[in-house]
């Protein structure tokens, strides 16, 4: 079943936005130099910026309508960064934070609100050791195999490789895993039909396994068949565990035995190309060589974009080198060893996810095309009072017991 025909195949199935109603748009950084594949470059960029003064600082900073060095901005929740105007900043760089930069790419961000046009503070307030972020991918008609929904344990920026942003949906509305971000009454309605208790993480796992893209947003067909539900939840948990890469107490992804990718020839300091040798299942990183690399990893796309190529392009910057003299031009002198380790893990993640695709196709077929007695559609959810979702459920929860530093060191109750 083609994912692009989701609206026809699952016509009465609810949208993810109806099941997980609170969401935010992607982060809008405003200036590319605040994000990098390595933390050291960010510290060097900060040091260069704070040494500059006046017009030079403005030029390096990258002035936008939302941010200038003189903007008055509150601190990001959970981050110990300055709130004085950046034009007076002379201190050390805040510790860079690991974030998810679009699908399957973790990079480093300077977590300073004065540098980010739209940081979505409501996400930072609920980002903790219990939180999981569901990142809905934008709809791309030509990409029938790409996932509709990805999961991250670190804060995601929601960037879309195809330029069609989706939405970021936290699993919990409050810190500490409090108040699931689910339509009120949803778990009770599902539990009544399935004859068993249903929890928030089970709903997320099902959505990860069953969601299909559509122009209106990700569609999540629901089933009342306990066997199909159990299979979908198990598949979703496996998929999520691979994507989390060992976070939340899980195991880091591994391909069994001799199928694990190894570096057969060292990656050079400045690799200029990334190619795939299908006959030898080898990934060629310049003159470097990694194998075995399953074809499923090389062909894995999101939004019609091949993930391994995008990951490489962001680091090698061969096609679009940064302009000399800009902060973005401050980069590692060579290819850090850590990048090769990250590439090996990414190959493993994509290969494992590609192997699960037949199970996903079988699951969607088992749902029965969204029709029949086992299907749970919008009409049934309306009868149960789950839909339409109340407006309050689409807004972030209020946090009344936490002080956050406002501009120029003032405190505000949020």
Structural commentary:
With 414 residues, the chain is an alpha+beta fold. It folds into 2 domains: 3-253 and 368-413, no CATH class; 257-360, no CATH class. Helices cover 29% and strands 14% of the residues. It has helices at residues 6-9, 16-19, 39-51, 54-61, 121-125, 186-194, 200-210, 226-244, 295-298, 307-316, 337-355, 357-366, 378-383, and strands at residues 35-36, 97-100, 106-109, 133-136, 149-152, 168-170, 172-174, 178-180, 222-223, 262-265, 274-277, 282-285, 288-291, 301-302, 305-306, 375-376, 403-405, 411-413. The strands form 7 sheets. The chain has a 4-stranded antiparallel beta sheet with strand order 10-13-12-11, with no helix packed on it. The protein has a 3-stranded antiparallel beta sheet with strand order 1-3-2, with helices on one face. Helix 7 packs across helix 8 (226-244).
